[in-house]
TrEMBL record:
Family annotation (InterPro entries): MlaB (IPR049743), MlaB-like_STAS (IPR058548), MlaB_ABC_Transporter (IPR052746), STAS_dom (IPR002645), STAS_dom_sf (IPR036513)
Ranges of residues in domain STAS: 1-101
Annotated NCBIfam families: mlaB_1
Protein name, as recorded: Lipid asymmetry maintenance protein MlaB
Gene it is expressed from: mlaB
Source organism: Pantoea anthophila
Origin: domain of life: Bacteria
Amino acid sequence: MHESLRWEREASTLLLKGELDRDTLMGLWQQRETLIRGVETIDVAALNRVDSSGLALLVHLREIARAQGSTPRFAGISDKLQSLITLYNLQQIIVSADKSA
């Protein structure tokens, strides 16, 4: 029983909502190049669940953005997502916009 993944752009922020996992990420994957263009912040606060496939997509989105000339930060990282980031040693890649640099 998966909740769907939804997303929207607000200025330079990409808002992700719902569940980001292997069962829900295909739509976002198909639009990733266009959606990430000009994004400075990826807001993950409204994600209820992220699995390792979803985390891989977040890393990939950041790398696409870097190739396009920007390095987005992530807003609203939950404790569960932070644990996954730490488990995979991605703290230098999935950087929180909520923390002081």
